[in-house]
Structure formats: C-alpha cells, structure tokens
Amino acid sequence: MDGDGDGRSVMAVVGLGVLGCNSAVAVYRSWGDPASVGFVVAADAALLLLLHFLRRFERARPRDDGGRGRAKAAVWALTTLLTAMFASRVAPMMPPHVGLAVWVAAVATAGGGFWALFIH
C-alpha cells in the first residue's frame, strides 16, 4: 500500500478512479445543463491541479524557497477556488441566513488557509 517505484499508492489510484467514475456519471446526468457540466469539469481540473501542486510542494527541498513558495501559493489558490466554487453551488439552495453562514465559513476557511500557509 505504500506505493510502487514511482510514488503512487494503490489508494491514490483507486481514489482517482472513483473520482473519474463519479465525474463521468455527473456529466452524463447533467448533460443538458452546460453550467453543471462546466462545473464538474472545472472542479475536476482544479482538483487534479491541486494534487499536482501538493505533490510538488511535498517533494520540494525545505530550503528551495522559490519552488516551494510557488507550489504553496498554487495550493492555496486552488483550495480557495474549490471552496468558493462549492459555496457558490450550495449557498443558493439554503435559506438566506444559512447561505450567508456557508459563505462566512468559506471565507474563514480561505483566510485560515492563508494564515496557516503564509503567516504562521
């Protein structure tokens, strides 16, 4: 389970396979709604980019400020993007005060991530 020679674990491959199947089903079920299809494709692209930059961040040497810093910024930007994307889909389905709470939680998550990655 630790992975084969190139660093891929069995669970990571299974997880990406499940994500791919779930995304294919979501696109199939919402084929008549271009906005929903675009959301699924954009969320998957952002998630795959996030995984790529997480791997780059983990593999960068601690003293490599340039590469590590760029990867860290990309990780924060992509997680903030995904948080905002999902909040924009969930908040309108809720009563107004709960929708506001969803957005407050999204902003707090993005701000907390910024603090944890860049300030602390």
TrEMBL record:
Which PANTHER family does the protein's record reference? OS05G0181300 PROTEIN, OS06G0147000 PROTEIN
Q: What is this protein called?
A: Uncharacterized protein
Species of origin: Zea mays
- The source's superkingdom equals Eukaryota
Q: Does the keyword Membrane apply?
A: yes
Xref: InterPro entries: DUF6490 (IPR045501)
Family matches, as Pfam families: DUF6490 (PF20100)
Assigned keywords, A-Z? Membrane, Transmembrane, Transmembrane helix
Q: Which residues cross the membrane?
A: 12-31, 37-54, 75-94, 100-119
